[in-house]
Each structure stands twice: as structure tokens, then as C-alpha cells.
Amino acid sequence: MMINRDLYKKYFTQDSIPNWVCPTCQIAVLNTTSEHFIFEDTAITKQSWNEDWFDPDMARYTYTALFTCSNPSCKEAVASSGFGSLEEEYIHTPSGYEREYVSYFRPLFFHPPLKFFQIPNDTPDNVKKAIEASFSLSFSNKSAAVNQIRIALECLLNNLGIPQVSNENIKSKRLSLHDRVELLTHKYPKLKDICLAIKWLGNSGSHCEEEMTMDNVLDGYEMMSFVLDELYDNKHERIAILAKQINDKKGAK
Ligand SMILES: [Zn+2]
Questions:
Q1: pLDDT above 90 for 194
Q2: Residues 108, 181: one domain?
Q3: 157 and 51 share one domain
């Protein structure tokens, strides 16, 4: 599944709220109003406005907002908070260009967390839980979000019955996540390379020097979504049954 990356990577304005999908019904987008979207200068900005050196584009905000699902039978309330800044822009008018300051925002938090992809219903609970934990961290702590995908992979291998220890020698040896992913070669050849990439990404997220980006997180989500769809989404099976019913009847079932 391809994720619309702009939804999660771009700054937004109050007039251009991204089409974030409601995490509860997963059908409709979230809306907000100016009464439900509050922002204020940070302390340092408040102290600096009257200084000679201060430029409006140095202003920083903290925002808090309440979004509501636009699906009339859901109307879920979703809280969000984050930060913002003021940007100078030139607006084209009949008399030339006019300077204007526009407030841009970026989220750090949503509750309930946004769902970046649909987790198939038959996915084991511990895998689901690790992915949901990742979703809740994706804006605020990208390394932790990537790490949670790695944990989801470990849970997944446990559910697939991939051994955690090797008994090849007399002494049993604890297998690394890498060794365990290699064991997918025979039964799940299509998934092995993808799981290996998830593992490498998770490793990068665990090192102090490596700064994770939203693209890294979304790469992990796209790969994990593919793996789960292959294992736990019975879409192919459903379509095959439907086709068989129609073919058997040689017409609409
Ligand atoms: Zn909804």
C-alpha cells in the first residue's frame, strides 16, 4: 500500500488542514474550527517581540486543537498538539505584491493516534499492539516509532512459529532477529527481503547517532503493511471464491 506522504510531512495552515482520516471509523476526514484551534507564542517568542533583532519569522508557537470526524455517524473527537512558526509570504494583488505573514503548524501528537495504514483484522494482537504503539509515536519520536515496527516484526516471527533458539549443536544458541528472518526463506520467500529491510531500519532507529525522518517511519509502515496484507488479509481468497461462484453459475451469483 502506498501512503500519501504529504499528509504527514508537510506543514499546514488553518486554511489548509491536511485530509487526515479519522482513526476510529477510517472513512471520513477530520475537521476543525478556529474556536477549536488555539495557539500561542512560546515563552522565548513572547520575551523577544520587542527586541530590535527580532524578526517575525523567528516567532514560534505551541498549538492545541480538537478535530471532529466529518462522518455524521462517527463524529469522533481527536485531540492534537504541536508547534508552529510565522512565515513571510508575498501575495500577488492587482497593485503588485503584498507582504503577508502566514502561520504554519506541525503536529507532534494525536489522540486517538492517526492510523497510517489499515491493519488486517486477523493480525495477531501483539503485532497490532506494537504497530499501534508505533502510530502513537510517529510524529514525536521517530526512532521510537521505527523501533516499535521492529518489535512488531519480532512478534510476527513468534506468531509464525519461527524458532528463537537454534538446537543444531549440543548447546542451544539464541538466534538473532537477523537469523530468524533468514529462516523465512523457505516458507515465505516473498516476505524475507522485506522483513530484513524492516530489521535494518529498526536497527538504525536504535542508534544514538542516527536521526530518523518521517520518510524512514513511512518506509517501515509501507513494508509492514505489505507483509501483513500478504499474511493476514484474505482479499485474494475472497476474490477467488467470488470468481468461482460466478463461474460455476456462468452468471451473477
Ligand atoms: Zn470517524
A1: yes
A2: no
A3: no
